[in-house]
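One-letter codes give the sequence; the fold follows as tokens. Both lines appear below.
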Amino acid sequence: MVEGNPMKPQLDLEKQLSQVFFQLGAALAQDEEHIQHLISKLDSVLNQLISVPKFKYVEDMFGLQEYEMRLIALVYIQELEPDILTPYIGLSWYENGPTLSLDKLLYLSKQGNKRALLSKGGLRMKVFEWQLLQCGPSQSLTERVVIHSGLLHFLLTGSLNLKEDHPIALDSCASQDTVFESCLNVLDIDLSDRQFFQFDTRNTDLICWYTEQLAVHESALFGFFHSERLQQMGYAGLVCSLVDVILCANGKPIFLFASDLNCVSPVVFESLNKLDMSVANLSFFTPLICEHAEARAYCKTIKLNKPSTTSLVDAWQMLSPIPNEVRSTAITARYPIPLHRMSALADTAKKEEQSGADFWDALQLLCLRELNTGPEELAKLAEPRFKISDMVLSPHVASQLRELVGRVDKKAELHAQLPRFMPGCKALFWGKPGTGKSMAAEAIAGDLQLPLYVVNLANIASKWIGETEKHLEKLFDQAQEHNAVLMFDEADAVFAKRSAVESSQDKNANTGVSYLLQKIEHYSGLLLLSTNLKSNLDDAFLRRFHNVIEFTLPTPAHRELLWRQALSKNANNDLMNSITSLAHRFELTAAQILNITESALLQRLMIDHKDIDPESLANALKRELSKQHEGFMAQHEIKAWLQGN
């Protein structure tokens, strides 16, 4: 709030100005001889009034000339005391209702050289460019002049608060985020030579947070535009809103975030730039502007460098109640959490710790949930339901799956000891349907506690030239951002062998395969492909895999384990005693065993029985084998199994 003038109270000066304003009107109406004396007196009181702190603040913040401040004072006083215009009725001075025209106000303010003003473009004065005083659409000297409503309130009270429906919201309650202090070097940013700043990213949440934190760092106020209102505003409305904000700031610098300045026309941009908002300590911050070159010309680009691994580890340490370098290093390596979300996740983990949970375990789970948002139109998020230990695998396959986990877990150590180590891990799972390829992908994601994106190949592949590449670009970029395990199921649909070029469609398909090779090469996360036939894949892909793992049909011993896992707590004693024979008689995949168990249990539950017996399992087994046209031969084997032969 602007303090009052201890030498001459503003209220006394306003009363004096009102009185002499009225007297001058009366003298003009009567054509009295002492008019010049009253004009001199008006001039003296005006000079005193525009020297009080509120008026000086307005002068400094908007870079106004003295005669412009005198105009403001005259319009202000006639707004407060409209009765002072009564003597002017009947004179040519009273032209447009209960205000005086710009022509007459210039006369009273002793700015008599109106021709000079007109030669410069009429109302090309900062007081009008800032909308502090406003005229009609023709912008001529005969137009009536009104004062900005926010300015009127400020001159009356010395302060201004934005209403809830204002297009701009101000927030001065933010505190410095530990992550901002430790991860970003703000000393390299020069804010002195521009008033429009764009970041080299379009991540609006990150930029909003960064602008707010930069405001705290620079002891500035932070504000943001309500995007839907910004889109509906013209130049005058936008400038009026900015005036309100400047008057609210009480001299502090203001950092305004606008999520989309593309909706502001280049003409408005140019006009705003000419206002020289640096005088008012006002700066705009926005995501990367793409749509018009005129806007980019006024913007200085701020490059957001990626924080180092060490600084991220230190940030997690500072955010934790009990620092643990091993856990913070693991979380940094595994979860690329956006900077603006780190403190919020740590705060939530601390609350869960108060309820008995381990902070680092809670934080890891929260980080996983944070990344569980993927490119839904291109891939679906699969919540990992298993770990490798839950699967029945041969030692050879289990060892290779754990090696894939190790490649991700030990990425930092590998890079430290092998300078030429390339991040990223690629593996191919191949084998008959139902042998556990998809389950293995879930198990790996479960062990790593990372999101699993299963690619929707139908939405990726496109017959239109160039579309497939665009889809893949978006898919890989988003998966990279979330450090996701990326799974291409039935991958031969996209990763097939390149064919001889006989048509434009063949050329397009081959181009898509070549593009995939490039994206796979540079993907630093875990990439998994599954196919029923390895021979269908292009040899160029096979050479790039770290592991090529064959999933074979389970052995009798493995099938017995699978049956016991599936039937545990769901079968009666007779069935459990016959599992060994069942496992040796029928060559089934893990998926088939689960399907049979589910079907048999449903049959029993429908007749209010909870345990599966041999007969209900036999019925479900017949149905499953009939899918493979093995019904006739299977009946004899099933009958023999039921009889215990």
